[in-house]
Amino acid sequence: MRLGLALGYWGRGPDPRHLELARAAERLGYDSVWTAEAWGSDAFTALTWIAAHTSRIKLGTGIAQMAARTPTATAMHALTLDHLSGGRLLLGLGLSGPQVVEGWYGRPFPKSPLTATREYVDVIRQVLRRKGPVELDGAFHPHPYLGADGTGLGKPLKPITHPLRADLPLLLGAEGPKNIAQTTRIADGWLPLYWSPQRTDVYRASLSQAPEGFLIAPMARAVVCDDVAEGLLPVKAMLGFYIGGMGHAAKNFHADLMARMGFEEEARRVQQLFLEGRRQEAVLAVPDAFADEISLVGPRERIAERLELWRTGPVTDLLVTAPDPDTLRVLAELNS
């Protein structure tokens, strides 16, 4: 199992620790470093900055939002950064949810998310393979565009720049069972939002047709500390925000996922509290057991014991969010 460093997205401003952590991860032999985006900082710019200050570590977008860019724009970002970094990019993509797509990006959330995702990936693959002009008779991403409100002058094009790698790895952040199953067919890997090594049966059916070499790269908060309960508070804060705030009361993929993992009553309670404006109560209502299952928190000996559960399952890459170089070092030593 390889280790990766997940830096996420910025909060109020750039995090001065990110570059230090990325360099530390590279020195410690970590395989990859990942950036993200929500509705603030973007994934590609921060990753390019890290690329310029490192030499070996792979560079992942975990995740770049599909609604933020057309598929050809995403492909241009990918092929550009792949060239500049010497072939180190891992392209992680996600559809996001209705509140973000419609509220932030100002466009409709697709009525058929699976079809929209499949078309998006198809266009990117065509750009990177550069076998001919990009053409797709699609419902969401037609190339060229032939809609009634267009000029009818669109011309199929292929990229001027020759991509460095036609087989640049593409991973998808998927949560629903059908979406995960489709991911095994159209992508090179999957970026789970929550992964419990104690509940791998939740995903067994969706992953049953995954090909050999398929990447499974979940993210997990990791911190070496003496007080487990205190160490879990950032995990619970993240869960409270995602389960309660990252979605509508009637459509919240994150809350649905927690429910499928055996915590349905607790997920709905967290969601209700958050939507009522009782955010601190929502965070405290996140079960310690769930937060603990999807993270690596506590003294070194405890983390060593729990890390074995991750290593014995189907996970190929463990992407850790760690607040300090010491935690990164401990994980590298334990995973060696």
TrEMBL record:
InterPro entries from the UniProt entry: F420-G6PD/mer, F420_OxRdatse_Rv3520c_pred, Luciferase-like_dom, Luciferase-like_sf
Signal sequence range: none
Domain of life: Bacteria
Keyword annotations of the record: Oxidoreductase
Luciferase-like domain sequence ranges: 17-313
NCBIfam families: F420_Rv3520c
Protein's UniProt name: LLM class F420-dependent oxidoreductase
Organism for this UniProt entry: Streptomyces nigrescens
